[in-house]
Design goal:
Order of helices and strands: HHHHHHHEEEEHEEHEEHHHEEEEEHEHH
Oligomer: single chain
Structural class: alpha+beta
Number of domains: 4
Helix content: 40-55%
């Protein structure tokens, strides 16, 4: 039997019999290669090729069989249904490809953007609308001009009925095109502050600090005012006012507030905190401190730590918060008691470092000592700063920490009642190489340097012991630095 290849149906039949299996195998190999690849941007394409292999390609072959092999006309209803279903698959495929090329969260392609849900939905609508127009026009023979005219009249009626909804929709596109904020940004809108978690057709959704949802119409954002705490960068300046007594010198207040800020975890020392005198009020002097934090998200925790540390810092510095004018403070008369330095002297005598040392000099040291209170998360001493004296932990706990050149924090030791720190100032006029971080509210005895140096001259073995302690600590710090090279 001779085959007549001049007949079109025969050529198409042979082409489909040979070509379809080859294309299926080729797509299968591509899919297998992508599955083995661990790159997220490539593995996302697996479902695209599988969809082509399992739906688009078989539907295309069925249409070709019906029109080229069986030679059914395009006016046949069954052919139109098969072609319509093929276009549905193609539209879905086009949406998937657009999402992967432009809006995927993975990969590092320069074409990809992090788009809000509203823009993704709009893109899908455009693709579906164009695909539907093609199907209605080329497959079912509808005249698009008449359809558009009818839709135009209907859209006028709908536009009048849905003015508010359309206003929010257009406002949403205006906000997206201007790129004034994105998902993940922190916004202040009126009385609401929250993190943007969704941008939809009608509204922007915020999640506030109380874990509550706040829905804001797009039109309210487009026509009103809002503050973006995350753009162009998340760094934030916080300002806090404090009122202190007229008896406290401004320089002393500014120094106390600045030191407390520098020692608060999360507050940046570059740019350094700034304190200004704002006003002289009726019963107090108002000061304002401004400081920088790296990310607005962390503001409540940092502000809480700083506000708590101010009470302790004010107590240590001897500055006072004013009371209200109408309050009458009734204070009990202090009973005669032994001076506070007696207690400090007993503490020094009981410590292993000073036990049995010169009594006269220990007494002078005790008289020049001060009891200080520190709150949890405060820094009793800070790396890179000089400590005016040394310290004895009386209660609470602390950690001595070291930050290396890479920014990694190392815990050197845990401090408990009876432990000293800041000894480097006794031997060398150098800045502290470590910081002491209070982990539980603590009482600390601050011992000034003056009479301590005299004690070292009288007790050379004490000086030798302190130098050995400092040398051992420096050796450990040097070992940490050498491991990081």
């Amino acid at each position: 039997m001779n085959l007549d290849f001049s007949q079109g149906w025969l050529s198409w039949g042979l082409a489909l019999i040979i070509g379809f299996p080859l294309i299926v195998v080729l797509i299968g190999e591509i899919t297998h290669h992508l599955e083995k690849n661990r790159t997220a941007s490539l593995t996302e394409w697996v479902h695209v090729f599988r969809f082509i292999q399992r739906f688009v390609l078989p539907q295309l072959v069925l249409l070709l069989i019906m029109t080229k092999v069986l030679e059914l006309t395009t006016s046949n209803v069954l052919v139109k249904l098969v072609e319509t279903l093929l276009w549905v698959f193609i539209i879905y495929l086009a949406i998937s490809v657009v999402n992967l090329l432009l809006f995927s969260d993975t990969g590092e392609s320069k074409w990809k953007i992090k788009a809000p849900k509203l823009l993704l939905d709009f893109t899908r609508v455009i693709v579906v609308a164009v695909g539907t127009a093609i199907v209605l026009s080329s497959v079912w023979g509808f005249e698009l001009g008449k359809m558009l005219a009818a839709l135009g009249v209907g859209s006028i009626v709908l536009g009048l009925a849905l003015q508010d909804t359309l206003s929010s929709l257009l406002s949403g596109f205006s906000l997206i095109s201007s790129r004034q904020f994105k998902e993940g940004d922190w916004l202040e809108v009126g009385d609401h502050i929250g993190k943007v978690i969704n941008i939809s057709w009608r509204s922007v959704t915020l999640l506030n600090r109380d874990e509550d949802i706040v829905l804001l119409p797009n039109s309210e954002l487009a026509n009103g005012k809002f503050v973006n705490f995350s753009s162009p960068y998340p760094r934030h300046i916080e300002r806090i006012n404090f009122d202190f007594s007229f008896d406290d010198a401004p320089y002393k207040v500014k120094q106390t507030l600045t030191e407390a800020a520098i020692k608060t975890a999360g507050i940046l020392d570059d740019p350094s905190p700034d304190v200004i005198l704002v006003s002289y009020d009726e019963f107090s002097v108002r000061h304002q401190i401004s400081f920088h934090i790296e990310d607005y998200t962390d503001l409540p925790q940092i502000r809480n730590r700083f506000m708590s540390s101010i009470w302790y810092a004010a107590q240590r510095a001897g500055i006072t918060f004013p009371t209200r004018a109408h309050e009458v403070m009734l204070m009990e008369a202090k009973s005669e008691s032994e001076p506070s330095y007696i207690r400090y002297l007993e503490i020094l005598q009981d410590s292993p470092l000073f036990r049995g040392k010169n009594m006269d000099l220990l007494t002078k040291m005790a008289k020049r000592s001060h009891l200080q209170h520190y709150g949890t998360h405060e820094l009793a001493s800070q790396q890179g700063y000089h400590s005016a004296g040394f310290f004895l932990l009386l209660s609470g706990t602390a950690k001595e920490i070291y930050t290396d050149k890479t920014g990694k924090v190392h815990t050197i030791r845990t401090l408990r009642p009876g432990d000293f720190f800041g000894l480097v100032s006794l031997v060398k006029d150098e800045a502290d190489r470590t910081s002491v971080h209070i982990t539980q509210d603590a009482e600390v005895l601050h011992i000034e340097e003056e009479h301590t140096h005299q004690l070292f001259e009288k007790e050379p073995e004490l000086s030798t012991t302190v130098e050995q302690i400092i040398a051992a600590a420096n050796k450990e710090l040097d070992a940490i630095e050498s491991r990081n090279k």
